């Protein structure tokens, strides 16, 4: 069946975003911030959004701050990836997000995880960031959008919420589905992530 977006524009992209917060802000507690962000995304996109439950997850890396509240959303859009990212940054700013410490505590983080089967900006750059040693990940930040997110396969706190909204999404480089990538994570890592009330 052809979707409404396809009929209107002739093309669409299946997008997955990951959301997380572990600090309070003018919008309230982390749970309230994530719920606000999801609603704001829906309003701005003007399109139906599939949303995951909320999950409590340990801060990454260990000891980096209080536990996070994480969620994922999936939707179809005819916008460009850069336009979706700009919307995400605007919503982060509404929550008082600052970018002072990499992987530090934050009022809101929205990551563009997947943009259909696109690899951005290209395969070589994506592989560079995907293979970056952990010690370099703490200090280096790409200057451009990398899609799929180079760490999605490494993070159960992203994959578990994704299972609620995009279990069959297939990584265009690794060839693995969300479910298969989650299966590869350790039982200990997955056991640290707890479902909260539905978003």
Automatic annotation (TrEMBL):
Family: Belongs to the HPPK family.
GO molecular function, one term: ATP binding
Entry-linked SUPFAM superfamilies: 6-hydroxymethyl-7,8-dihydropterin pyrophosphokinase, HPPK (SSF55083)
Function: Catalyzes the transfer of pyrophosphate from adenosine triphosphate (ATP) to 6-hydroxymethyl-7,8-dihydropterin, an enzymatic step in folate biosynthesis pathway.
PROSITE patterns: HPPK
EC numbers, comma separated: 2.7.6.3
Pathway: Cofactor biosynthesis; tetrahydrofolate biosynthesis; 2-amino-4-hydroxy-6-hydroxymethyl-7,8-dihydropteridine diphosphate from 7,8-dihydroneopterin triphosphate: step 4/4
GO biological process, one term: tetrahydrofolate biosynthetic process
Residue ranges occupied by any 7,8-dihydro-6-hydroxymethylpterin-pyrophosphokinase domain in the UniProt entry: 102-113
Entry keywords, A to Z: ATP-binding, Folate biosynthesis, Kinase, Nucleotide-binding, Transferase
Protein name: 2-amino-4-hydroxy-6-hydroxymethyldihydropteridine pyrophosphokinase
Ribonucleoprotein among keywords: no
UniProt keyword Kinase present: yes
């Amino acid at each position: 069946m052809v979707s409404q977006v396809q009929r209107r524009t002739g093309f669409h992209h299946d997008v997955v975003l990951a959301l997380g917060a572990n600090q309070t802000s003018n919008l309230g507690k982390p749970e309230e911030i994530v719920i606000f962000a999801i609603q704001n995304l829906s309003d701005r996109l003007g399109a139906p959004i599939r949303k995951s439950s909320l999950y409590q997850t340990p801060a990454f890396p260990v000891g980096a701050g209080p536990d996070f509240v994480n969620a994922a959303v999936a939707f179809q859009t005819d916008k460009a990836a850069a336009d979706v990212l700009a919307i995400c940054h605007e919503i982060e700013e509404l929550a008082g997000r600052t970018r002072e410490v990499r992987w530090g505590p934050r009022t809101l983080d929205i990551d563009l995880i997947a943009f259909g089967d696109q690899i951005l900006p290209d395969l070589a750059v994506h592989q560079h960031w995907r293979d970056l040693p952990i010690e370099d990940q703490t200090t280096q930040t790409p200057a451009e959008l990398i899609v799929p997110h180079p760490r999605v396969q490494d993070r159960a706190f992203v994959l578990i919420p994704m299972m609620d909204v995009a279990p069959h999404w297939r990584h265009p480089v690794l060839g693995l589905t969300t479910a298969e990538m989650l299966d590869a994570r350790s039982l200990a890592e997955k056991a640290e992530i707890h479902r909260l009330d539905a978003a």
